[in-house]
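ok posting inputs for the zinc ion job
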Amino acid sequence: MECKDLHRVINRLVDGELPPATKSEAEAHAAGCADCGPLLAAERQWRQAVRRAGTYYTAPELVRRRIEAMARKQSAAAPARSAWPGWRIAASLLVTMGLSSAITAYVTTPSSTSLMEQEVVASHVRSLQMDHITDVTSSNEHTVKPWFHGKLDYAPPVEDYAAQGFPLLGGRLEYLDHENVAALVYRHAQHPINVFILPSDAADSAPKAMVDHGYNILRWTKGGMTFWAVSDVDAANLDDLVKLMRERKPESEHEPVK
Ligand SMILES: [Zn+2]
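and the output
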């Protein structure tokens, strides 16, 4: 196994989803590789932190529901009295837990969208660190687009915007949200831009801007695909690229293969 193979399966490795043979190969590579060893350790730490945050996050919600149910029962049983005597204590406990969960949520934001946001940023950073930003290096959409054929069960739209200041560098397979997805790589000045394209059942939506670890992110859905553009480029520049991508191509040319 080479570095690029490990990068492709690292999420599945950390999630314990690899078949045993691939798992041992990946771990053997990481053990002997000065790049991948620390990378794998960092991914594992990160995943653990997210899992812990997820537990903190759901516990107060369960407690809240239980307390509400108890309070409802009590007030139904004794409507004249001021509900359940333990209510005040429970309420203050809830406030404390709610606060700490709000803080945890603010720091780690474990909703599915923000987990995806973290994955997108992690993939972007990894693609830069590992000097493996493209699997297919070409500014020609007629080379990059067919390269995805047979690797994905959908056909991501590919276009070069060199004339508008966003040359296409190529494409790459990524593993996000438990599936293989397309990554298109653009450049603006010296800033690389990753655009991840995933099949989606969601309705079309306008771009939503996010900032994570100093990276600008725009997410939108169009024609049965969700796009995530991420870069350290200025938000205005990222916006320009996204406008170009959204303006192009009638839906019929998206050529869904499914
Ligand atoms: Zn390696």
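notes: Residues 174 and 180 are 6 Å apart (CA to CA). The first helix runs from residue 3 to 14.
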